[in-house]
């Protein structure tokens, strides 16, 4: 719905899978929005572990991007009635595959072009978190095949730098690499 709310769109799809109707505006309301800064980035005060940082309909720049990370998405999911099985960084691809095989939708943090980027650690409001530039993206993983995962990307149409759109099978090697950019960050719903 908004230009920079892929996390909320991915969560909306996951909630729908669990039989919970929620709009992206409702999800943003549960997360809170800190529009006092343009987005997540080095030297900026917004903390994506506490709120959605930047205007959801804003734009990205060379050193920032609007968005949020797992704590706010998990909190919004719980507040909207979902059961969160796991959330955080360090959730291995193998664990995700097991969760997916058990029909649990998984919101994952990847990059817009599904390539690995070396993230650096930045700080805001006492928290430290990964930042890899204005390539941060969230999608929903909903299926697993022999050598690929089925990703439901909230970006429905191709645009420059976006490799997989809509529902797409992504090779596991590609998924594992892009998923590693943000330290294997995910929210798993039951």
Largest sheet: 6 strands, antiparallel
Outline the low-pLDDT stretches. none
Encode the helix/strand succession as letters: HHEEHEHEEEEEEHE
Q: What is the SS-derived class? A: alpha+beta
Q: What is the overall shape?
A: globular
| Helical fraction | 25-40%
What is the tally of beta strands? 10
Number of helices: 5
Mean pLDDT: 94
Report strand %: 25-35%
CA distance, first residue to last residue? 25 Å
Provide the gyration radius in Å: 15 Å
Give the strand line-up of the largest sheet.
3-10-4-7-8-9
Task: Kindly describe this structure.
This protein has helices at residues 6-17, 24-31, 70-79, 93-101, 172-180; strands spanning 33-34, 52-53, 84-88, 106-111, 120-124, 127-131, 136-144, 148-153, 166-171, 186-189. It is an alpha+beta fold. It has a 6-stranded antiparallel beta sheet with strand order 3-10-4-7-8-9, sandwiched between helices. The chain has a two-stranded parallel ribbon with strand order 1-2. Strand 5 and strand 6 form a beta hairpin. Helix 1 crosses helix 2 and helix 2 (24-31) packs across helix 3. It is globular, with a radius of gyration of 15 Å. The two termini are 25 Å apart. The mean pLDDT is 94.
Jot down its keywords.
single chain; 190 residues; 10 strands; 25% helix
Quick overview:
With 190 residues, this protein is α+β, with helices and mostly antiparallel strands. The protein is built from five helices and ten strands, in the order H-H-E-E-H-E-H-E-E-E-E-E-E-H-E.
């Amino acid at each position: 719905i908004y230009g920079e709310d892929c996390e909320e769109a991915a969560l909306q799809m996951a909630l729908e899978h669990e039989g919970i109707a929620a709009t992206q505006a409702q999800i943003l309301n549960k997360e809170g929005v800190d529009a006092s800064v343009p987005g997540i980035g080095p030297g900026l005060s917004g903390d994506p572990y506490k709120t959605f940082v930047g205007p959801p309909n804003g734009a990205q720049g060379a050193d920032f991007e609007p968005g949020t990370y797992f704590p706010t998405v998990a909190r919004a999911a719980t507040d909207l009635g979902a059961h969160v099985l796991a959330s955080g960084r360090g959730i291995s691809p193998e664990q995700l595959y097991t969760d997916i095989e058990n029909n649990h939708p998984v919101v994952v943090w990847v990059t817009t072009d599904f390539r690995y980027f070396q993230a650096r650690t930045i700080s805001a409001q006492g928290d430290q978190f990964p930042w890899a530039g204005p390539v941060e993206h969230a999608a929903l993983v909903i299926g697993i095949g022999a050598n690929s995962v089925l990703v439901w990307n909230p970006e429905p149409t191709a645009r420059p730098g976006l490799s997989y759109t809509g529902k797409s099978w992504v090779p596991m090697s590609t998924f594992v690499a892009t998923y590693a950019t943000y330290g294997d960050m995910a929210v798993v719903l039951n």
